[in-house]
Amino acid sequence: MSRDGVGASVTRGGGYDRVTGRQRYVADIHLEDVLHVKLVTLDCARARIRSVDASAAWRVPGVRLVTTAEDLPRPMPRFGPQFEDRPVLAVGETKYHGEPVAAVAAETRDAAEEAARLVHVDYEELPAVVTLAAALDPAAPLVQDPALRPGDPFATTNVLREHRVAWGDVDATVADLVVEHVYAFPMVTHFAIEPHAFMAAPDGDGIAVWSTIQHPYWLQRILAKLLRMPLSKVRVLAPDPGGAFGGKQHTKYEPLVAFMALRAGRPVRLVLSLEETFQAARRASASVRVRTGFRADGAFAFQDVAADYLVGAYADIADRVVSKGSYPACGPYRVPAGRVVGRGILSHTPPSTAFRGFGNPQVNWAVESNIDEGARALGIDRLEIRLRNLARRGEAFIPFDTPADGDWEQTVRTAAARIGWGTPLPPGRGRGIAIGIKSGPTTGLSYATVRLLADGSVIVYAGTSDMGQGARTVFAQIAAQELGAPLEAVTVVMGDTAVVPYDAQTSASRSSVLMGTAIQRACGQVRDQLRGMAARLHGIDEAGIVVERGTVRLPDRELPVLDVLRRGLGRLGGELIGNGEMRKEEEPGHPLGGSAAFWEFNCTAIEAEVDEGTGDITLVRHVTVSDVGRALNPLQVRMQDEGAAIQGLGHTLMEHYIFDDHGRIRNLGAIDYRIPTSMDLPLELHSEIVENGDGPGPYGAKGMSEGALLCVAPAVAAAVRDATGAVIRELPLTPERVWRALHGEPDRP
Amino acid sequence: MHPFAYERPGSLAEAIALLGRHGAEARLLAGGTDLIIRLRDGSLRPSVVIDLKRVEELRPAIREEDGRLSISATSVMTDIAADPRVRRHFVALAEAAAVIGSVQIRNRATLAGNICNASPAADTAPSLLVYGAVVVAAGPAGTRRIPIDEFFVRSGATTLQRDELVAAVELPLPARRIGAAHVRRTRRRGHDLASVTLTCGVDDAGVTRLAYGSVGPRPVLEVDESGTLADPGSTGEARAGVLERMFLGASPSPRSMRASPEYRVAMLRALGERALRMALDRLGGG
């Protein structure tokens, strides 16, 4: 391991700037002559818009533009990553609390806010469906206009789509014990510290758009289509986001600000408040029915899982969340017969989108909890039953997908050892253990460019978004390793579609593997050019030259790269440029369109204590162990796992949206939507890394960043049950819910 | 934010005159931890904000005089929680002040603001009730002293007149030894609004004073003079009976999303017993 190459725990680049306020986020960028935008929304979820009267708003000093549906092209432009269903502004009807009906642009934020208040919308409130039961009622109003879903068999229901995965014959499989329960997972939001922010400015004959987006190139494509501009005229600037967690993957208000900037002929900016962010991005809640068949010895006979996800009024990426999230519901186990039906159910709620774990935590909570039920009924230890069924390396646990790509037993045993599984506990304490698995990217495309400059320093161009996961640092480490440059001489350029080559997306914990490989390959091209140079300079055959770790090895001697580079470039100077590409192609016929590039695998073990008088849970010890193949930066790997573990405590212990009868979010904002603080952390948090170099990425790395969140909830609930006997099948495990379970009070929503 | 005029009087007389001139159009600013939020969200749109921080007579000060501790209107929670006299004589108030909001909030939030906001969940209220605090109200006709139990009316409403402001909160130095404790219930351990906030004080004559908030429109004070609660010899049943009667004044809202009425009432019992135990321990331990 070198001091600052791959495998070194170098400090995260930009970390200091982030915590000292020096980093310039989108909201910190001040454009000359900018107008401030405020959205106009209604005080209910669903309403028929009769008319919009902006005359009073126009009279507010400083107002320069009021945009309503009337001012946009007709038919209303619609967009979305999967379905083009989301209008730039609500047209005819609002479908969720917070959906914008109009927007005001003014010289100051205060003027924009004042004017937005004065836009008079004449509307008739309509009944809204905000729960699964209401949305699935045959008499329920349809969230999406069937006319927008031609040829769709579900068009006359609120089912967005249904995804089925099956192997073996569940119905014909006999089991000694069948355990069936329904588990509920709450609706939660990402709560990134950086506000979502959007700016747009006319840019010659094109447009420049600044966004806190995770996928700038996808946004560029959507904007180009909506604005009827070539890609080359749409420049997306995407400074490093300050936390995203999936909530910033997809286009939200960029089309609106783009239309407004073009109309105003001036730059405009829209920075969402936390309350508006709650209405712009959230995770799908879910109700998951699990029927598990066990043999008497604890071996699984079958898993039968039906997961309904409550998605929003527009699909965003929710359908993919449903399909990809429900897909590995049967877990990393040997399951002779498996059946998973995942459905996205439309509702009059904010569009649900990607969120760290991407639909997996919902089903994982249910299936892992159900495994515990079976173990208890059979009198088998809860760790033992998992080990008995766990897929071993190379086993195709989902018959048509990537086989088990790690020594998973090692991960589980490490977690069990760290929690002291099987050792005596003081009274009032309990333990839980759970396993999480998630498919990595199924397709992907990343390009990288690497320039080796005349002085030996390096610039890496990578279209990944570094939202805090530390991609910049890892990419710099890879380039430093590959070219032998000191880390401090490597610069990583990101976040500008006019400068940086294409990258499909920053999601599914892919970047170290896919972009990392592209960077490695770009560095390889640079090394090839160095070999050519050395061959030319020394009059020898290229075949006899090796470039490695900053050294050019000739048959008879070794030269520093810089020496070859300087002489090779000659008096005119210049540089060497390498390009790298990494593709993961689609696999036609695969249920997800492609097999897993790798599996994210985690085991979480919890020791908890419960105050039976109040229902308070104290996490005495939280152990999270992830198989990451190779930790390119162990410090960052631990930070990611710890962050994911703590974020998972949110939906486990306290986070959930609460709606009223009008479909309004009652706990809009930080006062009544609580996330864990430093005071709410486990008394001890241990993160461990399993490294066997068996991943597909650079140096054997697998993707990581989501694993430690996947199975927090079932592990905590199992520990609570172990400590108290309380059986809870609905999250979050608030003190009141635990108290109710302990005191025989009926649960309340 | 809606525009407003900003006034920064230097004297109490000036502040009262401004208040008289602008009446309902004016809002007083001390710590601003409630006011600024409501200005920002537009739920308050005063035409004048009168900043009290430069009023000479209201400068941050905790003074001991004439057998009482006087806490001026601009004294902040951080200072109150750390003050040795508060900690010695009024430990439950120090405990309550130390759990309000976050560090940043406590560095700004004032005791006077906390009671004038009159939130049923105000954490200092139960302790002030137990210690028999007196609110010093200054108005055009001079000052008057309002016992804290007569100050709270309901959420957001007090008996303070429109032309008055709170100049100080006074705490009579206890004539007897008191053991007291403040406890609260929140949805998480980190800063949060209380779904039950409760203070119990027991004196060496056997009188137990118990005050609680966040379970009705205003905080409630109950006194047990029977000695049952303070008597280490009473049965658990007897104590529970007395506590039960003391909690009859609780009427939590069924509409709250923070906790159900049955949970709040159950937590009153659980916290009441805990606070009583702590108070007795402290009385015993001196």
Mean of residue pLDDT of chain B? 96
* CATH architecture assignment name of the largest domain in chain A: 2-Layer Sandwich
Rg of Cα set of chain B: 19 Å
CATH superfamily of the largest domain in chain A: Aldehyde oxidase/xanthine dehydrogenase, molybdopterin binding domain
User: What summary fits the major beta sheet of chain A?
Assistant: 7 strands, mixed
Largest interface: A-B, 27 and 22 residues
SSE topology string of chain B? EHEHEEEHHHHHHEEEEEEEEEHH
Biggest sheet statistics of chain B: 5 strands, antiparallel
Query: What oligomeric state do these chains adopt?
Result: heterodimer
Q: Which spans of chain A have pLDDT < 50 for at least 5 consecutive residues?
A: none
Give the overall shape of chain A: globular
What is the CATH C-level name of the largest domain in chain B? Alpha Beta
* CATH fold-level label of the largest domain in chain A: Aldehyde Oxidoreductase, domain 4
Q: Approximately how much beta-strand content do the residues of chain A carry? A: 15-25%
List the main descriptive attributes of the protein structure presented here.
heterodimer, A: 749 residues, alpha+beta, Aldehyde Oxidoreductase, domain 4, Aldehyde Oxidoreductase, domain 3, five-stranded mixed β-sheet, B: 286 residues, Uridine Diphospho-n-acetylenolpyruvylglucosamine Reductase, domain 2, Uridine Diphospho-n-acetylenolpyruvylglucosamine Reductase, domain 3, Enolase-like, domain 1, five-stranded antiparallel β-sheet, four-stranded antiparallel β-sheet, globular
